[in-house]
Amino acid sequence: QNLDNSGKLFVVFLIISGLTVLTYTLGAVGRVIIEGSIQRYLGRQRMMREVENLKNHFIICGHGRMGKILCEELQREGVDFVVIEGDPLVAEKLVEIGYLVVEGDATEDRVLEKAGVARAKGLVAVVSNNVNNLYITLSAREISRKENPGLYILSRATDASASEKITRAGANRVISPYAIGGMRIVQALLRPTVSDFMDVATQTSGLDLMFDELKVSDKTGLDGVAIKDSGIRQNFDVIVIAIKKPSGRMVFNPGPDVIMQIGDVLIVLGDR
Predict the structure, then answer these.
(1) Distance of CA 19 to CAs 3, 28, 29, 32, Å?
(2) Are 143 and 111 in contact (CB under 8 A)?
(3) How far apart are CA 145 and CA 125, in angstroms?
């Protein structure tokens, strides 16, 4: 009430400037939030289209300690894979890394279908809970029974009892990290040089040496051919360590006269 005209004008100017700055600030913040939300939405839609176009990929259920190692190794090998992760914060971080991620509970059929279980080459269930791994295995096997019967399912189990149940649910193979870790420790204690060699041959970050498997089909021209006449050693410089027969029988250190047949899987060791 005691202000003169110039003072009143200054107050009006101050109010208008404050409102302008506030409006601009709120607009900028709102724009950032909206644009960020739109970008995230469009990014997720683009990522889901990539997932829908994948074939013969791997599905990793759970990004815990084991899942993290799996993803890093698969990425290093250049293999396509999708991660199913239930924790939104973890899922967001995985997207930032560049992984293809389906957010949700891997025990639910719709989540497995979104990850492309009907088109996948393999599925790995490595959540920390045996029951969840059992449900994931059961669901994946049921979904893929008609459309993708060749789906290879590998699951984690913490004990022998859980391992048997998960196998009956449809897993091709069940692995216990504790059992494997214990055996590796024993090997390192009793046969340290052998353990060192296995580390070199099985770790992708080691030397340019690795194990691999090669299936004999009608396209390979190896059906009915003896190992010594196949040219495998001469042409590719690999050693045939063993042959897994279609019956499941394993022939270790096969001699040069052993005849290969369609369906045989050669386990070989050689330069990467």
Answers:
(1) 21, 14, 15, 20
(2) no
(3) 17
Whole-prediction pTM value? 0.70
70-117 pLDDT, tens per residue? Answer: 999 899 888 999 999 989 899 989 988 889 999 999 999 999 999 999
CB-based burial label for 57 (10 Å; 0-12, 13-18, 19+)? buried
Query: Residue 64, Cα to own-chain centre: how many angstroms?
Result: 12
- Please write the tens of the pLDDT for every residue from 232-272: 888 888 889 999 998 889 999 998 899 999 999 999 988 77
